[in-house]
Amino acid sequence: MDLLTRLTDDMKAAMKARDQQRLDVIRMLLSDVKIIDMAPKPTTAEDAVAAYAKKLRKSVEEYQKLGKPDEVEKLKYEIGVVEAYLPKKASPEETERLVEEFLKANTFTAKQMGQAMGMFMKAHGPQVDAGVANGILKSRLK
Fold it and tell me: How far apart are CA 78 and CA 67, in angstroms?
């Protein structure tokens, strides 16, 4: 089932359950997914959802700085709903294993960290968290 169909079905379920908070988040996701055709560069529905999740995470940081715990909790709930539609990322242990395999197949020096990270993310991008992969690569290339 594609993402648009899944979102539509989940929206109907949220409407029937009268779950207004979840419904609002799903409607926002649907809006973002439906307008990907108008994006300046080619994008996928998953990219639109990931971009929305990134915006929410940034908003959480801002509200934490402003000291608004009610807004932070609301945004964390929204992030939880959005993450259900994102592909699952590899655990730190799995990411470490992928980095080890990558470094066995390729040789890089600490000065080539940027190149190594670029090649690794090109090979494993959607399945790993870039921050975790970056930290592991840095520690291995010292």
Answer: 19
Residues in the chain: 142
54 contact partners, CB below 8 Å, separation of at least 6: none
Contact 53, 73 (CB under 8 A): no
Using the structure block, give the residue that is written with the tokens 């390729």.
106
CA dihedral 46, 53, 85, 70 (to 10 degrees): -160
pTM: 0.69
CA atoms of 142 and 136, how far apart (whole Å): 11
CATH 1.10.1510.10 fits 3-83, yes or no: yes
**pLDDT tens digit sequence for 58-72:** 999 999 999 999 999
Give the start-to-end residue ranges of the domains of the chain: 3-83, 92-140
